[in-house]
Amino acid sequence: MRIARFSHQDAIKYGIVDGSELVVLAGDPMFAGFDTTGERVPLADVALLAPVIPRSKVVCVGKNYHDHAAEMGGEAPAAPLLFLKPNTAVIGPGDAIVRPPQSQRTDFEGELAVVIGRIAKNVPTEKALDYVFGYTIANDVTARDLQYADGQWARAKGFDTFCPLGPAIETEFDIDAAQVTTRLNGEVKQQAPASDMIHSVSDIIAYASAAFTLLPGDVILTGTPAGVGPFEAGDAVEVEITGLGILRNTARNA
């Protein structure tokens, strides 16, 4: 089931994607279930929004593909390398990524994102997927020069607009069949099977939930393949994941 969050006639709603239409839901399906209103809206008539706005946090995993760890100048960590983005970094499909004046280099990082559907604390690996509501696409935008200058990642990855999500949440997703592809102005820059992740979704949820409670609506970014690179104002960045669609954003300067 593919679930979208959208704006239509000055109202924000949720809907199930059914071909070229949205079956409008009575509320946020994460909390209100999948009751429908009986209304159908053409996809062409709506503006898609970020499919979830995390109530609490975006948990990210660094260096979770061997080739990316190597291109960043180091070995892959033995355990998931966690950092956080604020929920104010989240934007939706089609929204502009704003390059901040503090940075001279902003990079794209296409990633698979996991949406948590239940309160998760000290979750065992073998039960971790029971806490997943669904999957979507993310771009872990990074001010690379600030990442190096600061010696830690909070500011470099936490600017407003630095966490595009979308276009929808898919509740049934086959990671083993998925390919992660990032294009800059139509040119492929990143491409790898999602199954190449070093630490699996289950491992990440178990590891993260042992440190802090994961809440419904929290999002986990699972790491990026090799090929990260800079983009400029006016560029278009597309992240495509098999079975999840395409997340497209353009960039502008602040």
UniProtKB/TrEMBL annotation:
The keyword Metal-binding applies. The keyword Metal-binding applies. InterPro entries: Fumarylacetoacetase-like_C, Fumarylacetoacetase_C_sf, Rv2993c-like_N. GO terms for molecular function: hydrolase activity. Residues 1-51 form the Rv2993c-like N-terminal domain. Its EC number is 3.7.-.-. Residues 57-250 form the Fumarylacetoacetase-like C-terminal domain. Keywords: Hydrolase, Metal-binding. This is Fumarylacetoacetate hydrolase family protein. It comes from Microbacterium fluvii. The lineage of its organism: Bacteria, Bacillati, Actinomycetota, Actinomycetes, Micrococcales.
